[in-house]
Design a protein that fits this description.
Four copies of one chain form a homotetramer.
Chain A (H helix, E strand, L loop, with lengths): L1 E6 L4 H10 L5 E7 L8 H4 L11 E2 L1 H7 L2 E4 L6 H11 L2 E4 L9 H8 L12 E3 L2 H4 L8 E3 L3 H16 L2 E12 L14 H4 L4 E2 L8 H12 L5 E7 L6 E9 L5 H11 L6 E3 L17 E8 L4 E8 L3 H15 L16
Parallel strand pairs in A: 1-2, 1-4, 2-3, 4-5, 5-7, 6-7, 8-10, 12-13
Antiparallel strand pairs in A: 8-11, 9-10, 11-14, 13-14
């Protein structure tokens, strides 16, 4: 059994990891940690876990001593120090934060107003969206786990980008995320009466996931890609829908687009390319590691329209992190991830 | 007092008219009609109206006999016959359906699979979004009241279109509507467990509001404009947010865009151009006749991003219809429409 | 015009007062106050009010100087000091907090862990649920405005209590309130992902509204009444439903119960006794000052079951406060309160 | 592997069975049936199942031929005929409908307006809430699976009833169910704009689950028990909270009540008696087979207050049916039922 530790276990991604790992046949949770709740049982903080996981929250140092792999879900800027300790101790790290996602330190500085403090660690880390980059994993001790929006967008656009039929700067991404995406911290915009029966974009063309999105799309396209990215806060608990608009360089029918996607993802269990005519809905991927993609054409204006849906807390965070752990430890990639999305 | 009748009073736009007209100081509801519930009291169908409006639903013919103006909220294809009777009887008509919105019969045929049966009536009707076209009203007996999505989009884009700084075919409109937009009829996609905690686009690049949107934008721009329009079903009761992306022909700062909008709508009570830095939210216009607009720039990709929010049932239907009635009868345009949106 | 001031204007009851008073024909808002936001415009805090009420938040002392009546919406324990200043300045006060609701200081101490500091003020104040106690208003300078739960419960039970057919201690009250009842302050239980798709009772048999409920019921019954009262947090923004169970001393049919209620409330505009067979729903009173009551009998166990629905922020707070102000100033009781509940 | 068939697979309980059985290690779904969708793939009806279960819906007769056990989720009155065929074929049946729940045909007739057509089948069936009645299962070919409300109520009240401290007719049950409880059929009250931001009781003191509730409570108490039972429709997808009020024959402290429950359920995995001071919330049992119970005392009126929370579709339907299947086939009772409720 792999001994796993979760640092930041009382954050939303952290507690989702605790939940999902309960049913992983090859993993045992060896320790959980939280700065704010150290010494308390996690089931006092999250009563859903009562009598299922009543483990006490410890310090992160204790976890390093007894784990084979650490999942870290921390605010940006805090993972490098933990990573250094993990690498020193020969413990693998899967970082769900932003610190190991960007290749370019310059971009990191621009968006996060902070420099890398341990530059060599970034040589030892790799960013992995399994369906697109699993071959990049070559034993690195650190995996930068993708952000939620970038996962839906990269999976949604990869076949188009790689086939080279999209105009540069012709991409508009209108994403909508459930409120868990904003995390556990109390804030005005997530106070129930403020976000129930409400809807609005936020961080318009200025969200920190933008460089991560452009990094992946540029690699896939083999040239610099710029996008307009606007996230919205959706009054549901879970899920992301990204509606993606791409101007095409040539006339391509919906059937051809669909065939392109079908082929691209033919062997991918967790990406479901929906039959032509169906539309992806976040309802149908909730609580699961699936990414549903539907493909549409607007012949009228020469655009492809791609709809990509994921559960932001599973495929967009904890589920994909486990998928990356499976890659790291040479397990079957879907091991422990066979969650069936409910109908309602 | 103006005697008003409501045909289709048990539809969602109809019952909203019943509600809003209760507090109009110059209007008395002289009759209400419904095919499905004829003979019943409207408060049996809508118990919110109990002891406030217990009027009996009659036939539409009875209404014509006793009204100065008829509001019709009918499925497309049914308004012409009613319009003919109204015009013959000297009764004015405000049609909330689709039959008097499009100038081009060809477009109507293309999208609604039906021809105009009373062509001359269309000479006597005019389509009016008051803030943009009130000067077009010259005593016509019929007003085609705008659709909900087109209202938010036309108001959101008018200053940009008129200033001529938008690239042709550079417009992407990603709209999200509350469930009342789908009307009162039972359907799978509006069954509570199917649309609660769910989110999805529908009628992608094929919604019937597209020609109405393009008609208005083309007139404003003085040339043929094509847009990509994708509506989404939002799990809230009321409200529309349209997030509008427009590629600019020149570099324009957010401040310049904002000044353009501020000036364009300086004298319009019902359009609130939010201060730069704020973002329109459907929460803040609910239950009111306001359209909130926020203006944003994505210098990175040369796009303006406009967010327009309305209550789909008020400014997007019944409220705007009353505003049009006020124009028709020479009243102050905001008469009876001073609804203050609630904070929650 | 009556000059009204609102102290605590950025709380939920306060901002609802700001909204409702916009359309009161006899009132002008002369000033608004807030400790936390002094010096800011209220529309910066509540953007729904932008361009409608952009008044600056002042200190409460400034308000006293220029108002005829102050509405105070403060945490318990803070109203006495304000009341003293108001009385000294000859300004009337309507207190939406808990400080002037209980006759018995002992009960106040028991539930609020605090004594009355200005005992004589309590001689000058009166607690008024208009439909039940308007005759108690005899020119007192202070009105204690009822709590939200107690309003629904007192109106729901008054005809039964007064007719004397209910067994002592035979009353169980299961109430459910929308989240605005918890106010504007951020808290774990009102963080969206914690209360969306969630439901739970709270403060079981220990809510501070209990003595207020028992005070009113006891007066109506003419003897000491004890109730079991359990509130629940309902995932909606607005509204309260109280489902009230009362063991009857004699066999009474549903028809007889209904006739009792119908007669009791025959002249009350804001209490709608629904036709037998209908069930009160908070949907149908939202945004209005109505209290809907439906009456049911469980012959099987000898209980009457009463369902009472109000909008917690209108009839349960700001609307009833205005109704009380109308009484205070000799206006028609429904003046400025003709809000029609929407169908959705 | 046990070969299971699901009759009524496109109803809500049916599709939940399809989902849950995907992860049962001892069961293979051998066939699914639906009258309305025969010949279609279930994933066309429920796209969440796409590429997970694309099985074709067949006739129920085909299922009997190839299954060891049939789960039936049918409207009342339709199960007897199926049961007869199953028994004849030596196939076991777990009936999620109402036809095999009541011992008394008289009660069945009274509430369902129908007689038993195959009286002898009722000798061969047994009603089982596993935690309370597993010993009643003695190899009968038919199990009547409990209703959702009765499950929460029986588990919530069992320790009290058995200890004999509750006054006869002193029980009031105020239950609230998510909208999936109303099933998949379209209806006015489950149309999204009618039940979102709405709340109301229904079938007040007249719900068909009443005789099932009283049957279980009476057996536990050893005497005839009558209850007042009022269900409410809650605007969430899943979950039931029953708030249960019981007048006590003696003074019992909260600590004593809690100890009673703790002991009663000490060995039951799926019943979690929460620590004293905590309150059961449907959020914490969603998507799981747990029943959370919190215990409270109202010394003021001599009542115990019990809060019981389940997921109506799991412990209240499909999950409990699988638990009963496990009993039927001698498997560990929790086999395939280790679903961890999510935090959000």
């Amino acid at each position: 059994m792999i001994k796993a530790g979760i640092v930041g276990a009382t954050g939303y991604a952290g507690v989702e990891l605790v939940r999902l790992l309960q049913s992983h046949p090859q993993v045992e949770i060896a320790g959980i940690s939280s700065v704010s709740y150290e010494g308390k049982s996690i089931s006092e903080v999250y009563p859903n876990l009562y009598e299922i996981c009543d483990d006490t929250l410890e310090s992160e140092d204790k976890l390093i001593d007894k784990c084979d792999v650490i999942f870290a879900s921390l605010p940006h800027g805090l993972s490098e120090k933990l990573a250094k300790k993990c690498v020193a101790a020969g413990v693998k790290l899967i970082d769900l934060g932003a610190d190991f996602r960007l290749d370019s330190e310059e971009e990191y500085q621009k968006w996060y107003k902070k420099s890398y403090e341990e530059k060599d660690l970034h040589e030892k880390s790799v960013y992995v969206i399994p369906e697109l980059m699993r071959a990049q994993y070559k034993g690195q001790p650190i995996i930068g786990n993708p952000g939620c929006y970038p996962t839906s967008i990269a999976l949604g656009l990869a076949p188009l980008m790689q086939s080279g039929v999209v105009k540069d700067e012709g991409i508009v991404i209108d994403s909508k995320s459930g409120v868990t995406g904003a995390g556990r911290g109390l804030a005005d915009n997530t106070h129930y009466p403020n976000c129930n029966e409400a809807f609005s974009p936020y961080k318009i063309a200025s969200h920190r996931h933008t460089p991560e999105i452009e990094q992946t799309l540029s690699k896939l396209a083999g040239k610099q890609i710029r996008v307009t990215f606007v996230p919205h806060l959706l009054p549901v608990n879970r899920g992301i829908i990204s509606t993606i608009y791409a101007s095409l360089t040539a006339e391509i029918s919906a059937e051809e687009l669909h065939a392109l996607y079908d082929k691209f993802y033919a062997r991918e269990k967790f990406v479901r390319v929906l039959p032509l005519g169906k539309v992806a809905n976040l309802r149908d991927v909730k609580m699961s590691n699936y990414c549903d993609i539907s493909v549409h054409a607007d012949g009228h204006t020469g655009r492809a329209i791609i709809v990509a849906a994921i559960d932001n807390m599973v495929k967009g965070a904890a589920g994909q992190a486990i998928q990356n752990m499976n890659i790291m430890f040479g397990l079957k990639e879907d091991c422990g991830l066979d969650f069936v999305p409910p109908a309602f």
